[in-house]
Design a protein that fits this description.
Strand content: 15-25%
Distance between the termini: 56 Å
Strand order of the largest sheet: 4-3-2-1-5-6
Radius of gyration: 25 Å
Length: 596
């Protein structure tokens, strides 16, 4: 196997043959997906960095890796000994990739990238920024493919239908609503390339990306037609029959690139989601209506059927998580438990639940200082064995036919020191305060984020990420456009006005390198409260129910209102979860949810 430095050297040789000075390698696939299949992991192949977010630029002289605060520690470890230099995104004086390229690209040189894995906005930004130096762009070739021996193939997994009893709306209803939005935007066609939007619109799911139940596809919707570009071998007769009922025409996956060359009229394009290669294939004289995919908002606002299903899936998930906590507390120190076997136990308990399909992401199972890495991934080589001391963090979730779940609990495996208890209690206080917020319609996650951070900011602590993200329905565990964060991050579309039916995680944390990590995460649904002279008031319905470990809380750091919020939450946990437990487990849960 080639080393990272050898791969970079081979890439430079190919670049030199094509007179390319710099080559840009993001983490995305052809559809701007957050998580990608093995075929698309070019950045990981070249750099050796396995985190889900990051990008690499290789020039004839340097090699740079960018990633965000979730992965600083992991990235440092994984690129150690290579020529790669880590640029920590978001930190003071750290250049963005565009600023870096603007500085280092010689006049008249060439930038290369695979135009299918760069979104149109990013490609157009490169054109604008680098035009001052008369830099040309080469986007029609995947250079990493030329040096990647035994590259994994594109997936061939079969798709499956999502019954309307889970989805709540039929494809025909969704197409009618989409066409109304297209008409409002004065567009006659819409090119849809994001996989979760396509899966939602056509009520089908797949297994082309691990943990994300989607199928690789593109779609073009006109005033009277809907065309789906997909590998036909993935579609059963039942799916084809359903598509035919809704007049959905199926074409080969890669035909999209030729098809759009002949598109006419006014085309609705989402520049942040359509890839650059498709955009460049559009006729020059076609009218481009630049707007966000209307499906993003429609998908984020769950209908009443979806919401009821979400409650059901979270109830089952809460049972699995509660059983896990009982198992862990009872067995720690008595039998060998590692980070990997603990994660496997969590998955086993989910598999016992009705309608479970697969995990919704790679479980973060982290003991002691490993939990300080927000997106730590245990391996046979680096994992810890759990001992009856300190803290253990597990961030996990499930894909069920009736919903997608995401929950984090941090569990004391024995005595923990006072500083850790203070940190843990502050995280719980922030999470509960945000969960119990009341607010007017028109509020964004930006307005509410401070409720979760305040207990930490009071201690001069913070966490380098948002407080929460939207959740899909049997779709992506991270879903736009809703979320909680304290400042706008341009590349993250998660700061919209909160609407009734939106589902958002609430997951503040403390991460102390070399010591410990703490995160407590519940999911919230926006619901109506009261409409009065000031407007429509909203609040959150909590749908995640599992104990918060009282062994790591010191009540002296909580005021009476905070204690009552925790007691009220634990009362609900017991009422909802105990009917699904054995009498012995019920007694244990009673202790886990006792009033403080």
């Amino acid at each position: 196997m080639s080393t990272v430095n050898e791969k970079i050297a081979k890439l430079r040789e190919v670049m030199k043959e094509r007179n390319i000075f710099a080559y840009y390698i993001p983490s995305s696939d052809f559809h701007e997906s957050e998580y990608v299949g093995s075929y698309f992991k070019s950045r990981e192949f070249v750099s050796g960095f396995t985190g889900s977010a990051g990008l690499v630029v290789v020039t004839q002289e340097e090699a740079i890796l960018w990633t965000d605060g979730r992965y600083f520690i992991q990235a440092e470890q994984e690129i150690e000994g290579t020529e790669l230099v880590l640029f920590r995104q978001g930190e003071k004086d750290v250049k963005t990739p565009k600023k870096y390229l603007e500085k280092v690209m010689p006049n008249g040189s060439k930038l290369g990238f695979d135009g299918r894995v760069i979104n149109a906005k990013e490609g157009l930004d490169f054109e604008k920024v680098l035009s001052k130096k008369e830099v040309t762009i080469s986007y029609n070739e995947d250079l990493v493919d030329l040096i990647w021996e035994n590259r994994p193939e594109l997936p061939k997994e079969k798709s499956f239908l999502l019954d309307v009893k889970y989805a709540g709306k039929s494809t025909s209803e969704k197409l009618v609503e989409l066409r109304k939005e297209m008409k409002k935007k004065k567009s006659t066609s819409h090119i849809l390339t994001t996989l979760d939007d396509i899966a939602w619109l056509y009520n089908f799911r797949g297994r082309d990306i691990k943990f994300s139940p989607v199928t690789l596809a593109y779609s073009v919707i006109t005033e009277s037609e809907a065309v789906l570009f997909v590998d036909k071998s993935k579609l059963s007769e039942e799916i084809c029959a359903e598509f035919a009922k809704d007049n959905v025409e199926v074409k080969a996956y890669n035909d999209i690139y030729e098809y759009v060359k002949n598109i006419e009229g006014a085309v609705l394009v989402d520049l942040e989601r359509m890839n650059y290669a498709i955009y460049k294939n559009l006729p020059k004289d076609v009218t481009k209506v630049k707007a966000q995919n209307p499906t993003i908002l429609s998908k984020a606002i769950k209908n009443s059927v979806e919401i009821e299903n979400i409650r059901n899936s979270h109830l089952k998930d809460g049972v699995a998580c509660t059983k896990f906590m009982i198992w862990l507390k009872q067995n720690i120190g008595k039998t060998t438990i590692t980070e990997i076997t603990a994660a496997q136990k969590m998955e086993e308990l989910r598999k016992e639940q009705d309608l479970f399909i697969e995990p919704s992401f790679n479980t973060i199972s982290a003991y002691k200082d490993h939990a300080a890495m927000m997106h730590y991934s245990a391996t046979e080589q680096n994992q810890y064995t759990l001992e009856p001391e300190h803290l253990y963090l597990i961030d996990s979730g499930g894909q069920y036919f009736d919903g997608t779940t995401d929950i984090t609990r941090t569990i004391a495996l024995g005595e923990v020191d006072e500083e850790i208890k203070k940190h843990f209690t502050a995280v719980v206080r922030g999470m509960l305060t945000l969960s119990n917020a009341r607010f007017l319609h028109g509020v964004r996650g930006l307005n509410l984020d401070i409720l979760a951070r305040k207990p930490l900011w009071d201690m001069m602590l913070d966490y380098r990420c948002g407080t929460g993200h939207g959740i899909g329905f049997l779709l992506n565990v991270h879903e736009a456009p809703n979320g909680f964060r304290w400042k706008i991050v341009p590349e993250r579309n998660d700061s919209c006005e909160l609407e009734v039916g939106m589902v958002t995680t609430n997951e503040p944390g403390v991460y102390v390198g070399g010591s410990h990590g703490i995160r407590i995460e519940n999911e919230l649904i926006v619901q109506e409260l009261e409409n009065n002279e000031y407007g429509q008031f909203l609040h959150f319905e909590t749908v995640t129910f599992a104990p918060i470990d009282l062994d790591a809380i010191n009540p002296k750091y909580m005021n009476e209102e905070e204690k009552q919020m925790l007691n009220n939450y634990h009362k609900q946990v017991f009422e909802k979860i105990s009917p699904f437990l054995s009498s012995e487990e019920q007694e244990i849960l009673k202790g886990y949810t006792k009033e403080i």
